[in-house]
Amino acid sequence: MLRFLPYAAVGVLWLFCLVDVITSREDSVRNLAKTWWLLIVLFFPLAGSIVWLVAGRPQAARPMTRDQGAAPGFPEYERRGRFASADPAKDDDFLRKVRERAEEQRARYEAERREEQRRREQGEDPVP
């Protein structure tokens, strides 16, 4: 029974690495193209699996800093290429302007709704 343990371990490692190569994103694989890694792991089970784990497997992405564009406190926005302001004062100014614009739109909507309701009550034709 113990004779088969090394073969089973290599088989499990090989299967894990094979699935890992197949499910890895093409742009995140290191050093070679994904197709080459698949062939290496497929034809050289032990050596290919070890080399894949050491030299080809994608590395986990490190969290971004605010200078790189992260939005601290909101991990769903921490991805490369996303813009975040580096100046909190500008953030507050932007949010104030957004709130003002939202209030203006809300007031305009309410005025239009009241006008439409007044027309309906007076029996006027709605304006297209």
Tell me about this structure:
The termini are far apart. 7% of the residues are buried. Helix 1 runs antiparallel to helix 2 and helix 1 packs across helix 3. Helix content is 59%, strand content 0%. It is elongated and about 90 Å long.
Features:
4 helices, 128 residues, mainly alpha, single chain
Task: Give a quick summary of the entry.
The chain is mainly α and 128 residues long.
List the helices and strands and how they pair.
Layout: H1 5-23, H2 34-43, H3 45-56, H4 88-122
The tally of beta strands, per DSSP, is 0
Low-confidence stretches: none
| Global outline | elongated
How many domains, in number, for the residues? 2
Q: How much strand content do the residues show?
A: under 5%
Distance between the termini: 84 Å
Radius of gyration: 29 Å
